[in-house]
Automatic annotation (TrEMBL):
One of its GO terms (biological process) is carbohydrate metabolic process. GO terms for molecular function: hydrolase activity, hydrolyzing O-glycosyl compounds. Signal peptide: none annotated. This is Glycoside hydrolase family 43 protein. Belongs to the glycosyl hydrolase 43 family. It comes from Plebeiibacterium sediminum.
Length: 390
């Protein structure tokens, strides 16, 4: 009898505790799943919970968008509560108007029954981007891949394909780009230099930085391929596709041309801003001018965005300062770039897409989508609590 009484007490306590947790969650608006959505969105609300058709906060971080046959497809990292590791894979959401998104499931699933697979559950998959190849009617996904248990040391790109925009995607390969190829803008003297990382006891000294600018890490990684971390894809008007990625231990960006099927590298690539420490590249084009928004390298913490401009994709590229204006411009409105979306059918409408990461609760990362305006061809990003497409 005494025993039964204790069990009843325990259940009562559990029940009260549950009610308490649910109330707190709802009060602070942090319940990320299955909230009721009684009406459609008609505006963007940067930084707020963004519920999909099921009333669940969209789970597509570090994302990118593909427009195909009248629909936008948003691909991004599925994140869990306590880890940023890939326990599920790449999620896809579908929309006609960019405000309201339907959960289209997992586009690329991690492998659950083979610990040897490069995309085994628990690996790191970041910043997936998808492009469409007209030539063979195939969708191609690139993503930053880190192997399970190896931190950020693999610095690989992963490639997957599908015949359907929303997937499922089939994993094809992972690699470090451009093995055995020199960047087009590295001089003969830099290629032949014998300065090696082993010559330095300390990093970040002026001499070491000079050696980095001179391509020391490109030479180090020449045979095995160049490191590839934060990344994006860009398809130019002539159909040529490019992969842009943070290379050389995140110190230098590389921009590499892809083969016609978008599954390989032609071997043509350049280094951008050697030693400049740029991450989170988002490349776009307007009126024959190429623009690039990047961030600095401060982990999950936000920093000041950087804008670069060029008349040719192969450069020269010039960094021209921070495109953000107004309060919190120094922290990119507490976000980090991931993609710039040209809005279909609207002249000069571009959306800056950023992530407000939450390393304490990864799944609660928020999306900062803001309109890009142009002042004499210079892109500007201003904060809006809410806004609509014009
Ligand atoms: C910053 C990168 O931009 C993110 O994609 C992620 O790799 C974090 N660093 C990890 O700290």
């Amino acid at each position: 009898m005494v025993f039964k009484g204790r069990i009843r007490k325990l259940f009562c306590l559990l029940f009260i505790f549950n009610v308490f947790v649910i109330t707190i969650n709802n009060y602070f608006g942090v319940n990320l799943s299955a909230q009721n959505r009684d009406k459609e969105y008609e505006k963007f609300h940067p930084g707020e919970l963004w519920l999909d058709n099921n009333g669940t906060h969209i789970n597509a971080h570090g994302g990118g968008i593909l427009f195909h046959d009248g629909y936008y497809y948003w691909f991004g990292e599925h994140k869990s509560e306590h880890t940023s590791s890939a326990l599920v894979g790449v999620k896809c959401y579908k929309s006609k108007d960019l405000y309201n998104w339907t959960d289209s499931g997992v586009a690329l699933e991690v492998v659950k029954n083979d610990t040897l697979s490069p995309i085994t559950k628990g690996c790191t998959i970041e910043r997936p981007k998808v492009i469409y190849n007209k030539m063979n009617n195939q969708f191609v996904m690139f993503f930053h891949l880190e192997l399970k248990g190896k931190g950020y040391s693999a610095a690989n790109v992963g490639i997957a394909v599908s015949k359907n925009a929303q997937g499922p995607y089939e994993f094809i390969k992972n690699l470090r780009p451009n093995a055995g190829k020199w960047p087009m803008n590295m001089t003969e003297e830099q290629r032949l230099s014998s300065i090696k990382p082993g010559n330095f006891d300390k990093w970040w000294t002026p001499d070491w930085m000079e050696a980095i600018k001179g391509g020391m890490f490109v030479r180090r990684d020449f045979e095995g391929g160049q490191m590839s971390r934060d990344m994006s894809l860009f398809v130019d008007d002539d159909g040529t596709a490019y992969h842009i990625y943070s290379s050389e231990d995140n110190l230098t960006l590389h921009l590499a041309e892809l083969t016609d099927d978008y599954l390989d590298y032609t071997g043509k690539y350049i280094r951008m801003f050697p030693g400049g420490h740029n991450e989170a590249p988002a490349l776009f084009k307007r009126k024959d001018i190429y623009y690039l928004i990047t961030s600095g390298c401060t982990g999950w913490a936000p920093n000041e965005a950087r804008l670069a401009v060029a008349e040719s994709i192969w450069g020269p590229w010039k960094q021209v300062g921070n495109p953000c204006v107004g309060e919190d411009k120094e922290l990119t409105f507490n976000s980090q770039s991931t993609f710039v979306l040209p809005v279909e059918g609207k002249k000069d409408a571009f959306i800056f897409m950023g992530d407000r990461w939450n390393p304490q609760k990864h799944i609660d990362g928020r999306y900062i989508w803001l309109p890009i305006t142009f002042e004499k061809d210079k892109p500007l990003i201003k904060w809006h609590n809410e806004w609509v497409l014009k």
